[in-house]
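User: Hello, can you help with two protein structures?

Assistant: Certainly.
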Amino acid sequence: MPSYLKVRAHVVDFVNKIKKLGKDDPRRIMHSFKVALAITLVSMVYYLRPLYKGIGDTGIWAIMTVVVVFEYTAGATLSKVMNRGLATFLAGVLGIGAKYLASLFGPKAEPIVLGCLVFLLVASATFSRFIPHIKRRYDYGVLIFILTFSLVAVSGYRVDKIIALAHQRLLTIILGGATCIIISICVCPVWAGADLHSLTVSNLEKLASFLEGFGDVFELPSEVDNTNRSAERDRSFLTAYQSVLNSKSTEESLANFAWWEPGHGKFPFGHPWKQYLKIGVLTRQCAYHIEALNGYLDVKYKASSEFRIRVQEPCTKISFEAGKALKELASSVNLFTYPSSSAKHIQTCKNAVEELRHTTCFWFEIQPVAAWSYGMRSFEETPYRMSFRSRVTEADFACRPDIAYQNRP
């Protein structure tokens, strides 16, 4: 193939990937325009002379603030803006205080005292980053505090107008941060809370779809061709649940960013986002059980036809009922309703588990199916715990759906 055709093929492939990226989530395109708009607006500090006279060369910090703090979701942007603004203010005040405190010891001792103060505060701030709560929500603010305090304290030793320097730096950061917040919230906002809600519901639905499909697959293969067709049919849903196993970091990030967001849509201010993390933990427990069960789909059972016939019905029933229970739980989370009908599916699933236990009590020498049935019994308890952990009554949901999740343990 000629070289120009190879280059053309690479260009076409790159363009197709870009198109797919935009089609998968059109909000990414809008986010790009929002960042460009924010940069353009804060650049007016240099373009308009009245603004330039008020801020001066420190206006570059406004542009740098937009580049650094403007994130994809509104919660992430608010988190960085608040961290950067508060850290800059606190570091500026402490930096000025450290400079004047050191100046009281005279010209000779001033650099020594100032160096000791910088050492102590920077060491303390760095150590605070190991505290889990600070690491989760204020890590970026601590970094900005260390940077700003060091700049103000060290610059103050050579620069006379230290207060003006700190004031201009804080003003430009407020300008850039306010621009980011306004554009992020007012122009096609992307809410981390809504994404977390959708992700939680989607994960539950993926597990429910797998179990319902798993019940269809668990059938008696009479011929090799039937077995091959069944295995081929499995592949359409076997990989859907795997994304649930790796969703922990995404859920934690979204929950952290959602905490910073104001009330929006059906999510009021103070919405209990931590409950989504609890649901996520239980959902991954279900996914791990499913992963274990999935390992037995391609196993060629050495059991007799009689045994397979006896375990087929309870195993199929367990899969269907567990899938229906998870689907009901997903619907209740999505609509903020009480999962009343899931109790019936869970009880039916428990009865099928007991039936399977009695069926296989004399057949444990058959390892693959025995392990499969044990995995089913273990999995059945997980959706039960998900429903049982909600101690909210139907009356709570009927009166105030917005606080239903807050009453959960």
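That covers the first. Now for the second protein you mentioned:
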Amino acid sequence: KYTHMFESIIRSNPDRKSWYVGHLFLPGGSKTLDSKTDDSNSGNFRLSGWKDAKKLSIFDDSGGITQRSAVIGTLLRIVDFRRMNDGKLLLLVQALERFVVVRARQETPFSIADVQIIPDEEEVEWQQQYFSSINESITKTEFFTDAVAESFRWHEYEYDERVRLSVRNDEKDDLRSTDISGVDLKRILPFVPYSSTSSPKHIIGQRNKREAVPVNNMNRPEDEILLQIKEAGMLREVPTLSLEDLIGNRSLTTDHLEKSIWIFIDKYLRIKEMPYMPEELLGLLPPNQSWPTGFCLEKLANSKLLENRVPSKKFFRVTNDYPAHRRQKRLSFAASSLLEPSRIDGLRQSMLEIPSTRGRLWSVLEKFEIYHIKNKIDEKSNRQ
């Protein structure tokens, strides 16, 4: 089924350098769709728009939370592929944006839907501040559309499209599993490197020359869609952060949370005695920060910048001209990879369903703190 879908996408325009596809979390994976069960909840696993999904019962007959197909998903870009000798495909994809399903168009032989890209709340706020600073008056809908357009504009810099699978490519379409080296795949997974041929200055220059984003009836986002899908429970702020906001804790800014996460990452790596820090993650360390005594990651980043490497292998670190909210958004997704997502049920999906960068940073920080507390308890138990 999935091979047929990907082949259809690739063959529809074989001359393209990349192709786009949406990914949605489905409890139980594709086996759920293949099940012949007459379970009363089977309709929950069908593709549906968010307005239809919110009509489904939240609780099952036993009072537990109903499992259902997600309506908040990830926009993926296929940048490389190989055909295997057994007919399967090996794909290299990059996760670019998140979306909400607006309406289902097709269920078989594979799903097709209309979707709406959903930016973080900070991205929309940034657009509001930007247009206020240049005294340009636009509507709320245009704030939203321009936030999406701005995010796509940054793809050129944030996602290196030149990355390719480091496996045999002789177009014979007979790749074997023995041709695929785990070591080679680890070099390109799980992080996407920034482009070495673009720069923040170039992207910002494009923005300054920007023309109004055309919004016609076909691509106009629904008014207040962020608010609507939050009210419908499709996007949910982290409850503990909402409580902190309620009691007026003003110290929990996005900048503060970002710095706190880096301090915990530094501790976490030392506790875990991890000999390797992913360079793509280390490169997100904010520049010109003061760090506590004993903080090691700043020294590590500086030493990597001094290493003599070929240009294509040089260590990359974000600079001051890269917008903080873009850096923080990327960190809010990337940092959770250190938490062994496979061992935390639904971690990736829960991150997607948090409406703000600040909320995701808080969620990751909570999980690092839990790990730190657990480690201290384990140490105490071992000493007794």
